[in-house]
């Protein structure tokens, strides 16, 4: 009998309810908490499906899940994509598929990463174009990690001086600066299996246990249209990213839902925070999705979900990875990936064209410096370092229009 496993940490209500719900259905599958007693490379697990709720915090679990996926387990969510994903990229992808997002820019870390020096930043302008950045984003704004979550290291900044002051606290974190959205309605949406959507009114300014105690303000035809648009945007984002279990948050400004946060592949599902009705919905939807994935799982093959961004880039026409094919070692040029589709239906990729390989001889060999008793080695000029400042960011010059306020 195929098994459905759930990997989790301190949470109790959702994992236990999920296991009981799957086992209550006459599906031919049994659900249980994952047990790991050894992890041998390329060895399959006993699970057809694993729901992952904790590997973002436990690197050992993430490595275990990748090994399990390689050997045929359908891991939800895809551990390879989740390892590569981050919020700044998600915002950029959302723009490409037509989902509104706040204006956002990326900021280099305040402190240099370990094992780097001034030379490592020779391509970074000092100072950066702060006037243009601040004019584009405006104030007040929010500064947050480009790949973080759980409202950790999130700062509200009211002017440039406030931003530089708070940026001092961020260390080696790569931050992004994002415009503030003044909203009339706010929603958090579960998306399960890239087809089931639950839209929940949400108030992020309330204490944690009261955030779901909110009511939708838009009514009538306006409210119905708003909910339809939110559902459409939620599906577009999860299909493009490839998540089977995620939440998306929207802030509504002037009737337009703006996606604020949509990288939550282990979202809160505790009955004491989301409420009994929402809890019941997510348990049932997750159980049905897991059973459906277990039915289609093929042992020994890749059974992961990939988003349209990856599939279009690689020319994949199915959710699973294609059989490996041999490729030329060198190519003269490569075709740029097609843009991500804005709707769920996908077109079959065009046939790949053969690329001729051209060998080009170097124009001139590097000069060699002789050293007695040692083989000749290429000489390299001393690098040009644009600044002697230790930090990766720098405030504007004294004559800047953006003086401290």
TrEMBL record:
It comes from the Bacteria. Residues 91-287 form the ATP-grasp domain. GO terms for biological process: SOS response. Residues 319-405 are annotated as: Disordered. One of its GO terms (cellular component) is cytoplasm. The lineage of its organism: Bacteria, Pseudomonadati, Bacteroidota, Cytophagia, Cytophagales. InterPro entries: ATP-grasp, ATP_grasp_subdomain_1. This is Glutathione synthase. GO terms for molecular function: ATP binding; metal ion binding; ribosomal S6-glutamic acid ligase activity. Keywords: ATP-binding, Nucleotide-binding. SUPFAM superfamilies: Glutathione synthetase ATP-binding domain-like.
